[in-house]
Amino acid sequence: MGFVVLLFLLGQVNQCTGMRSSSIGAVDAASGTITLNLAQEPPQLDSTKATDQVSGMVLGHVMEGLLRYDANDDLVEGVAESWSVTDTEANFKLKQNLLWSNGTPITAHDFVFAWRKAVDPMTASQYAFILFFIENAREITSGDMPVESLGVTAVDDYTLNVRLREPTPFFLSLTAFPTYFPINQAFYESRDGRYGANAEDLIYNGPFTISQWVHNANVRLEKNENYWNKEAVHLNVIDFAYILSDANAIINLFESGDIAQAGLNVELVDRALRNRWDIRQHVDGSVFFIEINHREERLTRNYNLRKALQYVNDPSELVNKVIKLPGNLPGESIFPVWLKGVNGKFREEFPAKPLMTNNDKAREHYALALEELGLDKITLVMLSGDNPSANKQSEYYQSKYAKELGLELKLDRQIFKQRLQKMTDGDFDLVLAGWGPDYADALTFGDLFTSWNENNRGRYASPEVDRQVDIAKNSSDAKVRMEAFARVQDILNEDVAILMNYERGSLYVVHDRLENVARRSVGPDPDYAFARIVDKES
Amino acid sequence: MAWYTVKRLIQGIITVWFIATATFWAMHQVPGDPFIGEKAVSPEVEANLKARWGLDKPPLEQYWIFMRNMGQGDFGISFAQESRSVNDIILERFPVSAILGILAIVFAGLGGVLYGALTALYRNQWPDVLIILLVIIGISVPSFVFASVGQLVLVIINQILGFNVLPVAGWGDISHMLIPALVLGLGTMAFLTRLMRSSMLEIVSADFIRTARSKGVPSAQVFSRHQLRNAVLPVITVLGPSVASITTGGFVVENIFGIPGLGQSFVLAVQQSDYGVIMGTTVFYGAFLVLMVIIVDLLYAWIDPRVRLE
Fold first, then answer.
1. Which of A29, A107, A248, B244 is surrounded by the most beta carbons within 10 Å?
2. Which CATH class is domain B86-272?
3. For residue range A323-335, what is the model confidence (pLDDT) as tens digits?
4. Residue of A20, A216, A415 lying closest to B93 (CB–CB)
5. pTM of the model
6. Contact call for residues A24 and A227 (beta carbons, < 8 A)
7. CA distances from A89 to A94, A151, A158, A169, A363 (A)
8. Burial of A344 (0-12, 13-18, 19+ CB in 10 A)
């Protein structure tokens, strides 16, 4: 009887998971297949609603916007063949004769439909804000204007006109972002609310299509024969055959030759060295810092207290002695090193004023703070995530503040959503926080601490920061904009709006026959679209 | 027996209702909601989201809506995987957990009875000492350690042999299930071994065994017919809840071996505040556990007539 049940269930599983024969290994030159692990299941692949990194990565392989990023992080043509951007509008000329994977032509209407969908209050897209640079987008999302009033028009099938709310010199980089990808209206409506739920609930216009998607088990991409630039695509199959988040399990798969790429954490670096794997480094673009609560009733509103914390802050020590994973950079500025400036890199043109650790000065400011606040001793609460890496960092600060200042730090460890809720409610003095870029412009970091930004969870408010960001937002002159951001950089440090921690880097290992995998700070990462399998002596 | 069955079923339904209610209110007390993310959403979008998911209604109304739908077997839509219904997710993932759980229970049950009987048979001799030592390890070492170590050993074996005897992780055919099921069943196996041992020892000194022996029944027959059969009763009692706990408790093992089971959704849903999936999986597992207990009770009543008489 039990045996019969077992057989029945086996049959069920067979149906549900689409059983697969054993894997063919990490790279297979004969069939042009690479096998990889996916960190998590994409919640769904409707580009107007996707918010997470994994969905963005998969969408980046199977869809294409007006422009796309090449291997060097430069913007190149996608669906658009030519374009122009002014202070008030952007115009795109689309390639003709492009086809969706089901054979339907790709037209300017597909972009109008997708963008309207994304700002539609009924869609309630969490990334609607990324379209707020377009005329009326914000008003539509708040329900004050009809969706049709969005400032985007298909002049004809192959001409797209976009009216901008304010000068947006980086608008082209936005068009490579998943929320800006096109969607075919007829197909979308034929799916009856299930668009993006399964492989067959999508049509594709990118280098690959999804040929199989077994939820929580695997996602298989195959070369898109309708892709306009298919000559540049060398792989036939990208098989995300595993969906695993456990770092040890992933490296085990890499070691046994099942997958072609794997990330490393501190504990795994030695193993990688022992095996002489090809270890590579990637700066993922995110900046990490201690966000300070500037609300009225908080002790951390006291400038001398914040100054004391800044003087004991030592990002190099944090990176080298606490985090220890090579690849992370000590944080100096809210603007990370990779951001472009006027001609070169922003941080080379406008270096952040160095913040020196000085324990004596820290104690002076701490004494002043005690006096101003009329206290003998200060106790602060540090909110953080509840994972080994966050715990190591918060404990480091706890012992450091106690030792250098005699300040007591209470640790409030919360899992992801609970931490975010407490941050939003302002229920903290200090919080280990971070920020990843949405687009390739200094503004994505620059406006973070403006008084109107909902992500400014410490409610830092500085009229001067607001003014400088306004200047930057109303100009398309790179020099004017970058000088404004440089001013923001200085004010945040002088005013101790936040305490810098690090710019995140990561280490990973790649199969030695897999080349041309692009890693980026902004855009789909990693990008295997134009990767190739090379011959190595065997 | 029929009345007994009905009574147990009604009790079961009340239990499930209680589980659903308690979970519903506890869930809404936890800070954070399904829509909070690393990037704050604008107030407009948040209002749109809440309206669309009915979270703008008063909690009591939300509770009634949920209860009404649940009564019709509908748990709604997942908040995290927006285009998919909770029922679909459960139907798709439960068979995976179930098959893994059943395999694990087979390992655990067979192993537990066998080793338990062996320890009792060789009481205080070396097989007993050895097995009890292993049992202590099996009970005290958590499954994530077994899972990690098991996987690493597999990598090493595969490397030494030069080909993959068994896959390191992933999901597909029976070869993917063996090691995870073994790892998953180890704790229960150890527990059952101990239970079986003490139960066997208790029965060795029972009157009816002595009677059987004095009548001259061969010792093999005493062992198999009288001792084993009676000793296995307590094992059956715990087997039911074990089936439930093994199929639900597979989160760690599923995570490490990349198995798309329900245990994973169960835990992830809580982390993601995915209200629909939290309620769906909790009620489903609750009902499953209750059902298992009822089945065991009925089975017990069937095997042991004394229960029925009470």
1. A107
2. mainly alpha
3. 998 889 999 999 9
4. A216
5. 0.88
6. no
7. 16, 9, 17, 10, 54
8. exposed
